[in-house]
Amino acid sequence: MPWYKTGTVSVVQNSNAVLGAGTAFIANARVGDAFRGPDGGWYEVINIASDTALSIAPNYQGATNATGVYALAPMQGYVKDSADALRALANQFGGVMAVLGETPTQAGVRAALNLSNTDGLPEGTTNLYHSSARTLETALAGLNLADSTAVVSTDSVLVAAGKLQAQVSAALPKAGGTLTGPINDAPIQPLVSAATVNIGASTSNVIAISGTTTITGFGTIAAGARRTLRFTSALVLTHNVNSLILPTGANITTAANDSAEFLSLGGGNWLCLRYNLASGKALTFAYDRSNIVGTVSQTSGVPTGAIVEAGSSANGQYTKFADGTMICRLLVTGLSIAMNQGYGSGTVGTVNWAFPAAFVSTPPGLTLGVRGAGKFTTTSPADASSATLGSYLVFDPAGTTYTGSFNCFFMAVGRWY
Questions:
Q1: What pLDDT is attached to residue 344?
Q2: Would the CA dihedral through 381, 383, 388, 394 be positive or negative?
Q3: Residue 237: Cβ-neighbour burial (10 angstroms; 0-12, 13-18, 19+)
Q4: How many CA atoms lie within 13 A of 379 on its CB side?
Q5: Ranges of the chain with pLDDT below 50
Q6: pLDDT value at position 348?
Q7: Does residue 272 contact residue 261 with C-beta atoms inside 8 Å?
Q8: I need a surface site. Which of 109, 173, 232, 338 has the fewest CB within 10 A?
Q9: How far is Cα 53 from Cα 62, in angstroms, rounded to an integer?
Q10: Rounded to an integer, what distance in angstroms lies between the CA atom of residue 221 and that of residue 226?
Q11: Which pLDDT does position 350 carry in this prediction?
């Protein structure tokens, strides 16, 4: 056999590792072959790790060489050729021999091929197997639908099918007929909440779901199936435009004794036909006597709370409205004001007020009414802000100076958002 010399090798003095470049050691070398190194010395191949790596003995004696020429000489001669041929034969026909079994007799081969009975024989063109599919496809020639008597054990399948159909036809009402009794669902089936609650596989059309795990789907059943659900605790139903279509287009947090009806659209998709809150309120936000007055709130300019909110502090009373309007008021009795000059004199008394609730900006509507021993009037504040009314000027129309007690009414109208 020719020596194998393809590619180059890298060897290191006193190392047994040989690394090939452009080599195919696995197919062209065997343990026990002779390796002629770049130093001209001979070594024994003791291991073949891959197409580019093998080990030699003894360790390489020559100088280190990164791209040396080499040769692999087969030392097993025709034995190696025979072994390779046998290996190729086993690879090609090993599967066939395994199918034929290990017993070298006709009976052994038949047993290995499962030919001891008809299970291992293919069908012919005339003698066909009596399969389940062919049985189901057989026409019911001679079916009698007039006999509605009870099926007995001696009846053939054809006779039994005719009797059963006759019984069903006699029992069901015809078009426009009337049922004589109620149709009752199976007892309510309890199921525990999970990411997917398979209500389609329920043994009843009415299901009670317990637990608090968020639900994202209800399993798969044919389109048209309906299920009525009752929730016994709080959990989240996750809206999805395909698998779980909810009335509001948003997630729903259930409460104990909420109920709902779902329709299967097939493919694991469910449509909620109705959802009833145990409280009796609408599913979407609605106002009633319980939430007209409360805490107003908003998100991005959209009201999310009550319609009206009222409150008070030491600085007066305020009323907020859902549209953003706010009115602040304060009545102060016995307020001392020193009016040191008359109406036309310039400098007069001042009054300040901190709002009981802050406006989003300086309120455009500002009012101060003053009433004391005489008749007085006021001007606009000099330094109003979103938090304080600022300084008002108080005048005496009579043009006289005056120091005394006044009853003052403050009012500011603006926006809280």
A1: 45
A2: negative
A3: buried
A4: 14
A5: 344-348
A6: 44
A7: yes
A8: 173
A9: 18
A10: 10
A11: 62
* Alpha helices, H only, 141-226: 157-171
| Three-class DSSP category at 386 | coil
Q: Where are the beta strands (DSSP E) in 219-359?
A: 226-231, 236-237, 244-245, 252-253, 259-266, 269-276, 298-299, 302-303, 308-313, 316-321, 325-339, 349-351
Coil, helix or strand for 65?
Answer: strand
Query: Contact 271/225 with Cβ under 8 angstroms?
Result: no
Q: Kindly calculate the radius of gyration of the chain based on its CA atoms and give it in whole angstroms.
A: 49
Whether the bond into 58 is cis, omega within 30 of 0: yes
The confidence score (pLDDT) of residue 178 equals 74
User: What six digits make up the tokens of 326?
Assistant: 């706010």
β-bridge mates for residue 50, sequence order: 53
Whole-angstrom Cα distance, residue 167 to residue 310? 73
In DSSP notation, 205-241 reads SEEEEES---B-B-----TT-EEEEEE-S--EEPPBT
As given in the structure block, the two tokens for residue 377 are: 């009037």
Q: For residues 1-20, b (16+ Cβ closer than 10 Å) or e, as one string?
A: eeebeebbbbbbeeebebbb
DSSP structural state of residue 377: E
Contact between residue 390 and residue 359 where contact means Cβ atoms under 8 Å apart: no
What is the per-residue pLDDT across 142-171, written as a single tens digit (0 to 9) for each? 899 999 999 999 999 999 999 999 998 887
Sequence-ordered list of residues with C-beta below 8 angstroms from that of 15, at least 6 positions apart, any chain:
59, 60
In DSSP terms, which residues pair with 394 in a beta bridge? 349, 378
CA distance 146 to 161: 11
Cα-based distances in Å from 413 to 43, 265, 320, 333, 368: 105, 54, 10, 22, 12
User: In this structure, what token pair is assigned to residue 119?
Assistant: 């299970």
DSSP 3-61: PB--SEEEE-TT--EEEEES--HHHH--TT-EEE-TTS-EEEEEEEEETTEEEEES---
User: Whose structure tokens read 């409150």?
Assistant: 311
Question: Which residue type is seen at 206?
Answer: V
Per-residue tokens: 193: 């909440």
